[in-house]
Design a protein that fits this description.
441 residues; alpha/beta; Aspartate Aminotransferase, domain 1; Aspartate Aminotransferase, domain 2; seven-stranded mixed beta sheet; five-stranded antiparallel beta sheet; 17% strand; binds pyridoxal-5'-phosphate
């Protein structure tokens, strides 16, 4: 038996309340804030708060803590790197960790083409750089992204984002020449309603409607796609979707950019989620899990595309030596220890959530790959009307019982634990979710 979850004082306890009040007083009002968790320390998939409560983490700090909390290999690599030098600026000078990480990511990215790598500080920065790279490489201004997409909050990233209106409200004008089209959201697809199998109309409509009536495909630099939509609701597109997008891009000389910021680095049981479709994107973006929590992101692009001149793009902090060390250690751990674990436990979690779906009519859809699973709630299975209050209440209730969860999209619960969870953790999470749903019923 593990010593977590263990609630010793109803959260937020007295110490937590004090910190919450202080942070709420001084920090920007824009932080969304999910629930009053005040972390003191963590170990593997356990998070302890300042009042001594211990939680089982099934959100990994928004799908970041890939190797869990305090993985010894990662911590040692960080400590050693920090003891050597904290900064030099990899954009202008050289060090081994930077070279090694670029080489490692270039060789890991899917497909046979030679790759090059740009190191950034975050997912958004990787997206931002990829927008510039796509325009620079093609000489075209246009960008296509998907409804429900989340690509970050800087002006480029935000212009591609179409996840929640609060993220865009008040910030217009956005980047011009950005076009949003429906994602391959099988459960809520207007095109395939009533069809027994997916017609892939959500892809063909790009040519039949957008390119035929509104946008010259020759003016489009890139399509940005999440292989599994993250913030939009952990939406797994139908089989063949990325392949169809790849073919469409090839017909028109458009670059395919796979934003794997949330789905990459082993989360789905493969290093990159797009590997399930056997495609080679022109550009792959990673961040989140890459540094196990240290801020690092990367643009991995075909060498034939990443040919911009010295000075065209750079970053003071991108590829910080401590972050590079964390990323290299994370990749070691993910490759050697975690990938088989993710596949196995992902199956256990998916079948467990499917059993919950049989028990609770409010669960309309269960989908996912590896440890990236979405549970979508509805008011009525026939109409599929979203029930956003259910995941909201469920997340709140689970927190009080010592399970950390997060919602995604309009009415979906996302399950994205650290990749180090074991069978007992998965079963505990399922049991608590079951208990909460039973209480809400
Ligand atoms: C798919 C995707 N792209 C980009 C981002 C932005 O990353 P960051 O918050 O590191 O800037 C996110 C963050 O949730 C994401 O899920």
């Amino acid at each position: 038996m593990k010593d977590y979850p263990r609630i010793v004082v109803a959260p937020p306890g007295p110490k937590a309340r004090e910190i919450v009040a202080r942070q709420d007083r001084w920090a920007s009002t824009s932080y969304p804030k999910e629930y009053p968790l005040v972390i003191a320390r963590g170990e593997r998939a356990m998070v302890e708060d300042v009042d001594g409560n211990r939680y089982l983490d099934f959100m990994a700090g928004i799908a970041v803590a890939a190797t869990g909390y305090g993985h010894p290999t990662v911590v040692r690599a960080i400590q050693e790197a920090a003891g050597r030098f904290l900064h030099i600026c990899g954009s202008d000078f050289y060090f081994e960790g930077f070279a090694a990480l670029c080489e490692r990511l270039a060789k890991l990215a899917p497909g046979p083409s030679q790759k090059r790598v740009f190191l950034a500080n975050s997912g958004t920065e990787a997206v931002e750089g990829a927008i510039k790279l796509a325009r620079h490489a093609t000489g075209r201004p246009g960008l296509i992204a998907f409804l429900g997409a989340f690509h970050g909050r800087t002006y480029g990233g935000l212009s591609l984002t179409a996840s929640k209106v609060v993220q865009r409200a008040g910030f217009a004008p956005f980047l011009p020449e950005v076009h949003h089209v429906p994602y391959g959201y099988r459960y809520r697809c207007d095109y395939c309603r009533g069809e027994p199998v997916c017609t892939m109309r959500c892809v063909t409509v790009i040519e039949d409607e957008l390119f035929a009536k509104q946008v010259d495909p020759q003016s489009v630099a890139a399509i940005f796609v999440e292989p599994i939509q993250g913030e939009g609701g952990y939406v797994v597109p139908p089989p063949g979707y990325l392949k169809a997008l790849r073919e469409l891009c090839d017909r028109h000389g458009i670059l395919l950019v796979c934003d794997e910021v949330q789905s990459g680095i082993g989360r789905t049981g493969r290093m990159f989620a797009c590997e399930y479709e056997g495609i080679e994107p022109d550009v792959v973006l990673v961040a989140k899990g890459l540094g196990s929590g240290m801020p690092i992101g990367a643009i991995i692009a075909k060498q034939s595309i990443m040919k911009w001149r010295p000075g065209a793009h750079g970053s003071t902090f991108g590829g910080n030596p401590v972050c590079c060390a964390a990323a290299l250690a994370t990749l070691d751990v993910v490759e050697r220890e975690l990938l088989p674990n993710v596949a196995k436990l992902g199956e256990r979690l998916l079948s467990g959530t499917r059993r919950l779906q049989e028990k609770y009519a409010a669960i309309g859809d269960v989908r996912g790959r590896g440890l990236m699973i979405g549970v979508e709630f509805v008011k009525d299975r026939a109409t599929r009307e979203p029930a956003p209050e259910i995941p909201h209440k469920l997340v709140e209730r689970a927190f009080r019982k010592g399970l950390l969860l997060l919602g995604a999209g309009k009415s979906t619960l996302r399950l994205a634990p650290p990749l180090v969870v074991d069978e007992e953790d998965v079963d505990t999470a399922l049991r608590i979710i079951d208990e909460c749903l039973d209480e809400l019923d």
